[in-house]
Amino acid sequence: MTDQVIISPLSAASVEGLDARYRSEKRYRRIGAGAIVASLAFLAFLIVTITFQGVGAFSKTEMRIEFSEAAQLDANGDAFLLLRKTLRTSLEGANARKARRDAYGIAGADAEDQVQAALNTRAQDTIAPFELWISTSDEVDLAVKDGLQTLSSENGELSNKTRLSKRQLNWVKTLDASDDLRTVFNFGFLTNGDSRDAERAGVGGAIMGSLFALVVCFILSFFVGVMAAVYLEEFAPKNKWTALLEVNINNLASVPSIIFGLLGLAIFLNAFGLPRSSSMVGGMVLALMTLPTIIIASRLSLQAVPPSIREAALGLGATRVQTVFHHVFPLALPGMLTGAILGMARALGETAPLLMIGMVAFIADPPSSFLDPASALPVQVFLWSDSPERAFAEKTSGAILVLIVFLLLMNATAIWLRKKFEKKW
Fold first, then answer.
1. CB of 342 within 8 A of CB of 411?
2. Structural contact between residues 360 and 382, judged by C-beta atoms closer than 8 angstroms
3. Is 372 helix (H, G, I), strand (E, B) or coil?
């Protein structure tokens, strides 16, 4: 008796070409996994590069200076004269005209304000010596971050990484050797407004402008978008007009953002005469851009509610309005909020529509109201990226990091809302 080989009807031997299809499926799986790995690798490379370039924006270099009694008497309360006289006397060889310019050049643009603040806190009749840590210039700050020993060769030639003179570099090395240099967290980068001086520039004004614009965007787009979605999904008759309206809403979701900027320029600024460069106008333009996204997301959330909820409410005697707003709407609200937050996260990174309404202007002071001139984080990145100064490259990457943190927080909030209020059916 011979053993018979039983072939399964679904085995590769029983179906012609099945083995080739299995190999093709494995190949496509490997290609898909490779594509995911490659995309994650590019994303990691991008984030690491931006972090490496922008982490220096969150720190700054300060130097310690001692103000003598003689310098205070000669300055007679003038912070500008006191700072310059102290720099000339405390740095060796700062006597000639060019040497004095080099000495003044290692102090930051806000050093005079720091000296004035220190003088204001002291009694007027007090001239005792005191020490103060003042900000250094952006070139000194970059030199310290790059490594002072790497900026000059053994024969004394300077590296092309720095614009400091040999005299300035020697002074900075002397200060570093005597522990008169330190690196501290740069709170001004998160609180200050824009400035022509890199050591003074910060994203505080852009953060406030973005927050004001997002508040206006949320108030306008969320309530209008949700009510439009409720009407189209629950109350509007299904005819050719509503079908045309739905097609137009879907088309608006794919319109380039600069078109909404042109619309805001024509209507809000030219027709209504609203303040140019204000957060109010920026938020209204962003609301127009996010409305289609919120309407589509809200309609999908309403469609996800089981029909049995509506049928049970109607069967117990509830009206159509009571059924929608007492039973269907609360269940769809988490999805609506998620869609709104994701829509605003997209609006936070938009630059083109804000450029069209004038939010590209130089704004030195952070806005205090919705009608004050303001900037926004993506616009601030655009402005700094076009600056020729080397220190602004670090500021640009730092602003990008702040923008990425904002986007991550908004996306995390959307995920948290969905997980907290989502119901499984």
1. yes
2. yes
3. coil
The helix or strand, by DSSP H or E, that contains position 141, with its residue range, turns out to be helix 138-146
Residue of 238, 231, 227, 346 whose CA lies nearest to 286: 346
Radius of gyration of the chain from its Cα atoms, rounded to whole angstroms: 31
Residue 213 has pLDDT above 50, yes or no: yes
Domain 204-421 is found in CATH 1.10.10.60: no
- Give the pLDDT confidence of 240-265 residue by residue, as tens digits: 888 888 888 888 888 888 888 898 88
Vertex 265, ends 263 and 270: CA angle to 5°? Answer: 115
How far apart, in whole angstroms, are the C-alpha atoms of residue 49 and residue 47? 5
Q: Which residues, in sequence order, are CB contacts of 67 under 8 Å at separation 6+? A: 82, 86, 115, 129, 130, 131, 132
Select from 178, 154, 152, 177 the least CA-distant residue to 166.
Answer: 152
| Global pTM value | 0.83
How many Å separate Cα 322 from the centre of its chain? 42
Using CA atoms, how far apart are residues 178 and 173, in angstroms rounded to an integer? 9
Q: Which two tokens stand for residue 71?
A: 């310098």
Whether 400 and 47 have beta carbons less than 8 Å apart is answered as no
182 phi/psi in degrees, rounded to 5: -150, 155
The domain segmentation of the chain, as residue ranges, is 23-55, 60-186, 204-421
DSSP class of residue 76 equals T
pLDDT tens profile 82-127:
888 888 888 888 888 888 898 888 998 888 888 888 888 876 666 7
Q: Which residues pair with 185 in a beta bridge?
A: 59
